[in-house]
Amino acid sequence: MQSVYAIFKNRNSILVLAVILGLTLGRFAQNVSSLNVLALALSMTFAMTALPFKELLPLKRVIQPLAAGALLNYLLFGLVVVSLAYWLMPTKALFYGFVVVAATPPGVAIIPFAAILKGDIRYAILGVMGAFFASILLAPAIISVFAGKGGVSPWSLVALMLQLVAIPFFLSRFLRYKPLLKVVEKVRGSIVDWSFAFLIFVAVGLNREVFFSKPEILIKVSFVLIAATFVLGLTYQHIFQLLGGAKERAISHNLLATIKSSGFSVFTSISLFGKQAAIPSAVLAVVVLVYLLFLSLFFELKQSKS
Asked: Most CB contacts within 10 A, which of 2, 86, 99, 209?
């Protein structure tokens, strides 16, 4: 019984379970897809309780990491993803799905993994916050420029970002109130993980026929995302350190340049462009999971040898 409980508490096990259920019970995904907005609101609100606002002070010391987070997570990652997707994707819906991935805020998992990998934790926190704040303007701009022909109003995108980023951020400030924070910290991981898993279940379930009958699409989608995580992240970190950058800072830069909020991109893709556009986001969840596991195992291997 204890081992079963441990499985249901483990983020990786939950995500794998969500993918399996999406493939096997995906016909029910349409019936529950209306709950996506609630799942995302819970996930974003509780995830952002991990971001202490006091880290923004004094302001003159945080401008550089705030800007770096936005540039790495949007400009660098977005350039790789949008360029490859434009070249490889066979349909507009799939390309638009990648545009949404490029426009999505960073994954809050950057912060705990910066700690696990012995990166610069404060820099990672500030980078995530910078990218989150920038997303309110950058995400609508990116989607409008590259997917404007999809018929989405720029003002509706700004409203969507306020709803999905700004409001959860302000709600998260209330949850950081000291009497509540101890309880929030106990349940935060489970709420974020299960909300995220629900979004992945819906995305995989709505597109289960693609996973079973169109391997060529999966190969192309996976290729783009592997290039934007494994290849981009490891290459960037290596070059950064070759140029004299600190190892701790290089690790945080790697994570900021590669980790996106898959749950956010799932909901936004489906809302704006339909279920096929959510395929990149569903695959992204798996690729990011494998990449983070790879970084963790690689770090442990290096530690054991030293």
From this structure: 99
